[in-house]
Amino acid sequence: MVSFEAWCASEELSDDYMIRMHQRALELREAAGLQLFESRKHIDAIAMCYGALGDVAMFRYWTKKARSLRAPSYVGGCVVLDQWMMDPRRFPVWGWRNSRRGDVL
Description:
Blueprint: H1 4-9, H2 17-31, H3 39-53, H4 56-68, H5 75-86, H6 96-100
Helix pairs in contact: 2-3, 3-4, 4-5
């Protein structure tokens, strides 16, 4: 399995490589009736990938999904996710894949 950091730095792997991998994991879990079991980590990963790509619309879409899976008692995490949705550039790895490859957003 390729790490997030390795994907960000790779010129060989496609931009959607990690996204497709995590989407496939979600599809397999759903087919097995396990969509609630560890789905959040895959949704979080997809949001991170879109953040690393600097894709505002898809980052917000997947971050909103990630937020909806947080327990209401997880207020601190929800506040951070809300801040990132309002201003994606505050996301710690915003545009990281592009910048590590020398691309400019």
